[in-house]
Amino acid sequence: MPKAPHLVILGDQLTDQVGPLRALLAGEAAFSLPVLVIEVTGNRRARRHIQAVAMQIAALRTFAHELTVRGLATEIVAAETLPAALTELHHRYQPSGLTVMDPAQPQERAAIESWGATCGVPISVVPNELWLTTREEWAEFRAGRKGLRMEFWYRRVRGARGWLMEPGDPTTPLGGEWNLDHENRESLAPGMQLPAPRQHAAPSIVGEVLAELRDDHHALFGDAAEFRWPISRSEALEELELFCQDRLAGFGPYEDAMSREHDHLFHSLLSPALNLGLVTPEEVCTRVLREYATRSSEIPLSSVEGFIRQIIGWREFMHHVYVDFWREWEHDNGLQASEELPEFYWSGETRMACVSRVVHKLQRSGHAHHIERLMVLGNFALLFGVRPQAVDAWFLEAFIDALPWVVTPNVVAMSQFADLGRITSKPYISGGAYISRMGDDCSSCHFTPKESTGERACPFTTLYWDFIDRHTDRFARNPRMATQVRAWSGRAKPVQREIRARANEVRERARRGEL
Ligand SMILES: Cc1cc2nc3c(=O)[nH]c(=O)nc-3n(C[C@H](O)[C@H](O)[C@H](O)COP(=O)(O)OP(=O)(O)OC[C@H]3O[C@@H](n4cnc5c(N)ncnc54)[C@H](O)[C@@H]3O)c2cc1C
Ligand code: SF4
């Protein structure tokens, strides 16, 4: 009888809940043993957050260890690159073929298939069921569409699954509206008590991995003293439980709020676990819907709707568009931005209280929530005019949940508008007034959010008007930007001159590290 193929598991596919490993464990599929888990050691030298690298390695080793303890022969194959790891396993086991779930990164699939063709090893790439939606579902959605907007994708996916739909009417969203974001704009009241997210000592394996990284002298972003991230499925499920019990109800109203006192507010903190495969989007959504079903008098519909939209809307959408457009996003720079990122993106040393707080939080934890990513860090880079690919590289470096498939569409397309609107209809920009409305940073800042000129002018506010000025021709034609362009054109010429002069000064100071 011909030898069965070996099963290969990549570092972001750490699941026994779906796919070929589930089938093997259920006796529904046969593979030659051991199961081969790939550790790409070259990632340690990439510019990443120290906690992201430690979490990845610790989770991978924990996963392999748990399978072995359950009686399934499992081995980690570690090598500098993915093709080198495949060559290594080829030497060890001479596999008749390899089966692998479709990698989240299309470049990895290409590398595996190309290696297989060169080495004469048959490769079987099977669907990656860690995604809730398939490429076929996406292709049907895309067919004949000019613009790609998350909202329409979300409605389609939600309707198809019957999630949060009116009972007995599969075409009508529960409560009559698809999107309740207009209810989700609260800022925190001073002194408000918030549930504390899980805080526990990092498992010993994390300490071991951190010691290895220190011995290897890798120059990684941030520090690891406050490591709090799940590295196993059971820890990820615990995170999900705590979110459902303590934070889901407040998720919607305070989704966009920022706070000096509370790092994570009502956010789920599930992105690192989801991105490694420790929990699946399907089970996260199902668990959240179950919580809503049992506590619908306590949990606002806007919280559940908002959360489900992040997962089945944004997360799935961003992956599909990445597979389609990653090549373009490597070069897109439609606004011809040419600055480099100021040094304070690494040090946090700036008088801008909002930026400084978020960068220091990142150093400690690797996490900042969506509005801090989009409207503080991304917004400043866009207004300042930083090369989109430099912003992309920094986001990949600084975050616990960063992987190219999720960073690039969020950064290059959504936050930096470098493709001039492939997936969004306008750039996400604001002056200091928005940041002041949604959080409490401005009260402790050297700058004043409403001022656009003078020594105390908020750099966001000055650069906001400067951005509109520099791109007036382009945005005058955009119906969602025309009001701002008119507001700028209506300002007195001397005021415009003053704002331009202050913008140049802000730029100079940022370049010199004196902002
Ligand atoms: C500039 C920028 C960079 C980002 N970089 C990353 C990144 O490196 N990794 C990452 O996982 N997410 C990224 N996001 C998306 C989002 O900000 C994070 O997923 C979220 O803040 C993670 O925290 P959380 O798990 O507490 O999320 P919650 O607020 O609790 O949201 C729930 C889940 O929804 C998903 N989600 C929400 N928004 C998005 C989105 N826009 N794209 C993809 N998934 C989404 C995440 O899986 C998240 O865990 C980025 C967004 C922006 C604007
Ligand atoms: S004044 Fe401007 S720079 Fe300072 S915290 Fe507010 S928005 Fe940020």
The coarse silhouette is globular
> Span from first to last CA?
71 Å
Describe the strand arrangement of the main beta sheet, using strand numbers: 3-2-1-4-5
Q: Low-confidence runs (pLDDT<50, min 5 residues)?
A: none
Extended strand count: 5
Ligand set: flavin-adenine dinucleotide, iron/sulfur cluster
CATH class of the largest domain: Mainly Alpha
The Rg value, from CA coordinates, equals 24 Å
Mean of the pLDDT scores?
96
- What is the percent of helical residues? 40-55%
CATH structural architecture of the largest domain: Alpha Horseshoe
> Major sheet: size, sense and barrel closure?
5 strands, parallel
- The count of helical stretches stands at 21
- Counted up, domains total 3
Strand content: 5-15%
In N-to-C order, the SSE pattern is EHEHEHEHEHHHHHHHHHHHHHHHHH
CATH topology of the largest domain: Serine Threonine Protein Phosphatase 5, Tetratricopeptide repeat
Give a brief rundown of this model.
By secondary structure, this protein is mainly α. The chain has helices at residues 19-25, 50-69, 82-93, 106-119, 135-142, 150-161, 204-215, 233-251, 271-276, 281-294, 301-329, 344-347, 353-365, 370-384, 388-398, 404-415, 432-438, 459-470, 472-476, 482-489, 493-512; strands spanning 6-9, 32-40, 74-79, 98-101, 123-126.
Written account of the structure:
The protein is mainly alpha-helical and 515 residues long. The chain has 3 domains: 6-126, HUPs (Rossmann fold, 3-Layer(aba) Sandwich), CATH 3.40.50.620; 135-323, Serine Threonine Protein Phosphatase 5, Tetratricopeptide repeat (Alpha Horseshoe), CATH 1.25.40.80; 344-512, DNA Cyclobutane Dipyrimidine Photolyase, subunit A, domain 3, CATH 1.10.579. 50% of the residues lie in helices and 5% in strands. Strands 3-2-1-4-5 form a 5-stranded parallel beta sheet, sandwiched between helices. Strand 1 (6-9), helix 1 and strand 2 (32-40) form a beta-alpha-beta unit. Helix 8 crosses helix 10 (281-294), helix 8 packs across helix 11 and helix 14 crosses helix 18 (459-470). The mean pLDDT is 96. The structure holds flavin-adenine dinucleotide (FAD) and iron/sulfur cluster. Residues 352-354, 432, 435-436, 441-442, 445, 447-449, 458-460 line the site of iron/sulfur cluster.
